[in-house]
């Protein structure tokens, strides 16, 4: 972290993949019980936080097209305002490369990054546990990005256990489709009774994505994309989609697959990481 509190902070807000996702039940409040393995990636949106002297404003600029009040970045900063101890305002710039509705956790990651960096710049003094709890108000995936490690998750995603995953290479493809998470979780065809598994089983590469069958049914273009990807390796949907991914042992293999998929889809290659780059900025 820069010595001067007035220095801008630039950081990558990382994407995630769900290496597997089992839905084991539905609670009375409508939320789903699940088990999933979160893999962080060394690829994501760029965020720049610039303190502004003599103001309490939070100014947000971004290329998402969202109204400010609907943007999780602005909402995350506002959650911290009552805890603010520093007199500076903030200018936050978000440069998105992660597709919205892609299952990569972009909005949740942006919100978590905001909580972590603004907590520091505003000298709020909140612990990681407290920030993760605040993050739950913004979305189920926000806490994993706040804690900043690849993780095994249970409950509604709030019961997190940090794990060390092989830092494999992934090719990720997107069919230029926005998938509504709410629509998938509300679908009658969604599997909601998977038997509970274990971390050990998930780490061994077993498991599936229970959302995939429903997404395939509702979005034929995503089904076609996954079928195309399967010709290059075992492809899976991440989250509720729309992105699919394939894991490779080397960057060269991933780049080769990406070149083939790029004829028809937006693609990127990224390496799995076990610690968020945001954590490194906060600890510096």
UniProtKB/TrEMBL annotation:
Annotated Gene3D superfamilies: 3.30.230.10, GHMP kinase, C-terminal domain
Membrane-spanning residues: none
Catalytic activity entry: 4-CDP-2-C-methyl-D-erythritol + ATP = 4-CDP-2-C-methyl-D-erythritol 2-phosphate + ADP + H(+)
InterPro entries cross-referenced by the UniProt entry: GHMP_kinase_C_dom, GHMP_kinase_C_sf, GHMP_kinase_N_dom, IspE, Ribosomal_Su5_D2-typ_SF, Ribsml_uS5_D2-typ_fold_subgr
GO biological process: isopentenyl diphosphate biosynthetic process, methylerythritol 4-phosphate pathway; terpenoid biosynthetic process
Keyword Hydrolase set for record: no
Keywords, alphabetical: ATP-binding, Isoprene biosynthesis, Kinase, Nucleotide-binding, Transferase
Binding site for ATP: 99-109
Domain GHMP kinase C-terminal positions: 201-265
Superkingdom of origin organism: Bacteria
One annotated GO molecular function: ATP binding
Pathway: Isoprenoid biosynthesis; isopentenyl diphosphate biosynthesis via DXP pathway; isopentenyl diphosphate from 1-deoxy-D-xylulose 5-phosphate: step 3/6
Domain GHMP kinase N-terminal residue range list: 71-148
Active site: 16, 141
Keyword Transferase: yes
Enzyme Commission number(s) from the entry: 2.7.1.148
Family statement drawn from the similarity comment of this UniProt entry: Belongs to the GHMP kinase family. IspE subfamily.
PANTHER family, A to Z: 4-DIPHOSPHOCYTIDYL-2-C-METHYL-D-ERYTHRITOL KINASE, CHLOROPLASTIC (PTHR43527:SF2)
Stated role: Catalyzes the phosphorylation of the position 2 hydroxy group of 4-diphosphocytidyl-2C-methyl-D-erythritol.
Name recorded for this polypeptide: 4-diphosphocytidyl-2-C-methyl-D-erythritol kinase
Species: Salinispirillum sp. LH 10-3-1
């Amino acid at each position: 972290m820069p010595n001067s509190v007035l220095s801008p902070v630039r950081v990558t807000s990382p994407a995630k993949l769900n290496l597997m996702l089992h839905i084991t039940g539905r609670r009375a409040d409508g939320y789903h019980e699940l088990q999933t393995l979160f893999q962080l990636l060394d690829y994501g949106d760029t965020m720049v936080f610039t303190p502004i002297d003599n103001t309490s404003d939070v100014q947000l600029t971004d290329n998402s097209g969202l109204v400010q009040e609907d943007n999780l970045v602005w909402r995350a900063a506002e959650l911290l305002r009552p805890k603010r101890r520093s007199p500076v305002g903030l200018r936050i710039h978000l440069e998105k490369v992660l597709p919205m509705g892609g299952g990569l956790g972009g909005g949740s990651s942006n919100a978590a990054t905001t909580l972590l960096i603004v907590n520091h710049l505003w000298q709020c003094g909140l612990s990681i546990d407290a920030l993760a709890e605040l993050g739950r108000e913004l979305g189920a995936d926000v806490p994993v990005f706040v804690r900043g490690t690849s993780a095994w998750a249970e409950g509604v995603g709030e019961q997190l256990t940090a794990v060390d995953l092989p830092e494999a290479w992934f090719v990720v493809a997107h069919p230029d489709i926005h998938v509504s998470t709410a629509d998938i979780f509300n679908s009658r065809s969604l599997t909601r009774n998977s038997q509970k598994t274990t971390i050990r089983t998930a780490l061994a590469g077993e498991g599936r994505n229970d959302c995939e069958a429903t997404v395939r049914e509702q979005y034929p273009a995503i089904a076609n994309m996954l079928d195309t990807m399967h010709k290059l390796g075992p492809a899976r949907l991440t989250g509720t989609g729309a992105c699919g991914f394939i894991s490779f042992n080397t960057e060269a293999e991933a780049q080769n697959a990406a070149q083939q998929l790029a004829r028809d889809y937006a693609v990127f290659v990224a390496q799995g990481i076990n610690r968020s780059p945001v954590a490194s900025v906060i600890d510096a």
